[in-house]
Amino acid sequence: MTSRDTALKPPPPLRRGAEIELEFTDLLANGQGVGRAGGMAVFCFGPLPQERAQVRVSDVKQKYAVAQLLKILSESPERAKPFCPVFGICGGCQVQHLAYPAQLRWKREVVRNALARIGGLPGIEVEETIGMGDPRAYRNKMSLVVNHRPKPPALGFYRQR
Fold first, then answer.
1. Domain tally for the chain?
2. Segments in the chain forming alpha helices (H)
């Protein structure tokens, strides 16, 4: 086999359980980082754009794969320490690990992408996201889940996913 044959050989397909290293380049509206492996998009909660991470593939679909974060190998300069002790376990606040100014830019891009892709309105000017003085004090209501099995019943939030 020549080096030319090797260059033309497609990368092996992703498989469930595979551990791979990925460079993450984007962040979806639900907070999942987006990387690419073997020409396929890989979605994973935890990594931010500009980060390299080791992940384990948990599901492979026809056009994309889903992975779980094992380890951040190189951090984004926009990574922040989450203030909530259950961040990453709880299903809320998906981007607490992203610095607040970067969150504001990300939210603007989410709106711009939704208008272009879903609304069919490319090129719409989206104003800068208006931030707040205390980005931790914006919740004013909650939806809690009641588990009636234990005695007394337990009250809480859904886990992520």
1. 1
2. 3-8, 100-117
